[in-house]
Specification:
Largest sheet: 6 strands, mixed
Structural class: mainly beta
Number of strands: 28
Number of helices: 3
Radius of gyration: 33 Å
Length: 455
């Protein structure tokens, strides 16, 4: 199945036999060389025919060469002007530079100018005419730091065709699964003649085009390459930075959550805690261990009104992480001083506050508003009465059944009750439900907090 450039479509499985929709559609890219022994003018692309009668290249197929950005303004094309003699299944078509021909003695079937193939970051695509004046993509290989649209071919290959060849090792049409690097490629032209290119890599000497050779790193280290730490290695005479890390340079890079003092403007407060000091581990991961054991639980309602009512709980063992998400299901282990503040044998005493109209960095879409009423639905009538009394004490109010109504509306933001002790027997649990209405009756926020005491 061939696809127009820029309109990749949805491809659940790339079955090659479905690519017969256009002439020359049964052709794939088999090898790509971007430079050789430091010479960027030594370049070739090798195509492989995957069906018989694939002779008619003239005007029906082209190659597309992209730079790292993959933008149309820097894109270059090579349009085939001649047919080939051998169009049999398995035959090769070799497109190379004159410099490639000079050093190998192998005659390319088509000559391209040097510089079309980007050695380190780029893409090469093979296209065919769609019969309507346009072109359809058949195969592509993107590699290195290519940032353009890769379509159904997936993330760019990590290996690159600089001072080595990219060769196809599978046929799933995936940049990363299908391609590997070969130090000594053997290109083949259409008549079947080949040449084994001998690499200089492996002799321990850093030669032209090589970054390193075996254990010889030429004095380079992870630090000299801009990393903070790690151990540099050498693979195929290219720097192998897998064991290098930016962690430790006091600046967030890549997938790091933090780095030293760089916490990405996070604090304990922005993650929902009442205070404390946010930290960063040696592995550049956020740690909330030094944040207060008390934090706010929005309760899981819609995000826009979710800050109008929040529970404040204490539970050091179930504190929010780097996302700031606080579970509305809080489990306290009997005797755990991080959540159990009581001295009653066989029960947990969990401190809870009701907070209204909070300014919560985790809920940027929620605006604190004045509060008209708070309804609390609590299974334990004694606990329910304590909570309602504490809420009513926040402002001039009246109490009717399970609802506190403020008159005038309670002004915010950031109003919390005194602490209410929720006592649960070992193995016990309770569900506290709340419904709050802003001034005028809207918007409304409904929240649930589930507390349990585990043995």
């Amino acid at each position: 199945m061939v696809r127009p450039f820029g309109v990749w479509g949805v491809v659940a499985a790339l079955v090659f036999t479905a690519r017969l929709a256009a002439a020359q559609g049964n052709v794939i890219i088999d090898q790509v060389l971007g430079s050789w022994q430091g010479d960027d003018s030594v370049q070739f692309v090798e195509l492989q025919l995957r069906a018989d009668n694939q002779n008619g290249f003239a005007g029906n197929a082209d190659l597309v060469f992209d730079t790292a950005a993959g933008d149309a303004t820097s894109r270059r094309f090579f349009i085939f002007q001649q047919n080939i003699a051998n169009g049999a299944n398995g035959a090769r078509v070799l497109i190379g530079t004159l410099r490639f021909q000079a050093i190998t003695g192998l005659q390319p079937d088509f000559v391209i100018e040097p510089g079309l193939i980007q050695p380190v970051n780029g893409r090469v695509c093979y296209r065919v005419g769609d019969g309507q004046g346009g072109w359809s993509v058949v195969d592509c290989i993107a590699y290195g730091a290519f940032t353009g649209d890769v379509g159904p071919f997936g993330k760019p290959s990590r290996v690159t065709p600089d001072n080595r060849a990219l060769g196809r090792v599978a046929l799933t049409f995936s940049n990363r699964a299908d391609w590997d690097a070969f130090l000594s490629p053997t290109p083949v032209n259409n008549p079947g003649k080949s040449f084994a290119m001998q690499t200089l890599c492996g002799d321990g000497k850093i030669a032209q085009g090589e970054q390193c050779d075996d254990t010889n790193l030429g004095g380079a280290t992870c630090a000299s390459l801009g990393f903070a730490k790690g151990k540099l290695a050498c693979t195929q005479c290219h720097y192998d930075t897998k064991a290098c890390s930016f962690c430790g340079n006091n600046e967030i890079n890549g997938n790091e959550e933090c780095d030293g003092d760089d916490l990405d403007e996070r604090t304990c407060a922005t993650l929902g805690f009442t205070g404390g000091t946010l930290g960063c581990t040696e592995k550049c991961l956020i740690t909330t261990e030094a944040c207060d054991a008390t934090f706010f639980v929005p309760g899981g309602g819609p995000p826009k009104p979710d800050c109008l009512f929040e529970w404040q709980v204490m539970n050091a063992a179930q504190r929010p992480g780097v996302s700031g998400k606080a579970s509305p299901k809080q489990r306290c282990r009997l005797g755990d001083a991080g959540c159990d503040t009581g001295a009653t044998p066989g029960s947990c005493t969990v401190p809870v506050k009701v907070c209204l109209s909070r300014t919560d960095a985790r809920l940027p879409k929620c605006t604190p508003l004045s509060i008209d009423s708070v309804q609390l639905l609590v299974p334990d009538p004694v606990l329910g009465a304590s909570l309602l009394t504490a809420v009513g004490a926040l402002g001039t109010s009246t109490l009717s059944d399970d609802t506190v109504t403020f008159a005038p509306a309670l002004l915010g933001p950031d109003v919390c009750t005194d602490t209410i002790a929720v006592v649960l027997p070992s193995g016990g649990k309770t569900k506290l439900r709340a419904k709050v209405a802003a001034s005028g009756g809207k918007p409304k926020d409904a929240d649930v907090l589930r507390l349990s005491c585990t043995p």
